[in-house]
Amino acid sequence: MTEQPPAPQWPTVPPTGEQAPTPQRPTVPPTAEQAPAPQWQAVPQWPKVPQAGPRPVSYPAPVRVEAVPGTPYGLAVLGAPKTASGVAASSLATGVGSVLVSLAVWCFGLTGAEPGWGGLVAGAFAVLAILLGAAGIVLGWLGMRQIRLAAGTMTGRGVAISGLVCGAVGFLLAAFGLIVAIALSAGA
């Protein structure tokens, strides 16, 4: 039975600033069947200590600096990012809803013309489509006004215009669809 070599002894953690001693692997006299054991040294890597204190933050350049009366200090006023208009987004949502409901007016008006119920069902949906279209028009106009008065701090003018146009198209499609549905139901 061969004798096991002793385990290498690792040093304890050195105090801060001192170099840790490098451990030496003990050599074992080679036997007839073994080649000589190579010499090696391992240098342990100590973890780096993180830097104390807050991390630096890069702020945008101030828009203006106002002096604080009676002190040598100043107040830096930072610019705010642009915001999107919620009124404009609501205008687009109601305008698209008006167009979709006006398509239902046309579908029910044309499908129910033969049995005679088309004008009644189309009229119920036409009321909803006309109200949504009017809301899209009014909200689109209010959204454009809000963006204009915000003096460049608000975005969404294109969304407000799209909502206004969709609301007008939905309003007109629903009104014309209701007229066609009533005419087809009365003629049947």
Summarize the structure.
By secondary structure, the chain is mostly helical. The protein is built from three helices and four strands; from the N terminus they run βββααβα.
Verbal overview:
Residues 1-51 are annotated as: Disordered. The protein has a domain at 88-187. It has 188 residues and is mainly alpha-helical. A two-stranded antiparallel sheet has the order 1-2. Helices cover 47% and strands 6% of the residues. Helix 1 (86-111) packs antiparallel against helix 2 (118-149) and helix 1 (86-111) runs parallel beside helix 3 (157-187). A hairpin with a 6-residue loop joins strand 1 (64-67) and strand 2.
The residue-averaged pLDDT reads: 84
Describe the global form.
elongated
- Sequence stretches where pLDDT stays below 50 over 5 or more residues: none
- Specify the number of helices: 3
Structural class of the helices, strands and pairings? Answer: mainly alpha
The strand order across the widest sheet is: 1-2
List the helices and strands and how they pair.
Blueprint: E1 64-67, E2 74-77, E3 83-84, H1 86-111, H2 118-149, E4 154-155, H3 157-187
Parallel strand pairs: 3-4
Antiparallel strand pairs: 1-2
Transmembrane segments: 92-111, 117-142, 163-186
Region (Disordered): 1-51
Biased composition (Pro residues): 1-14
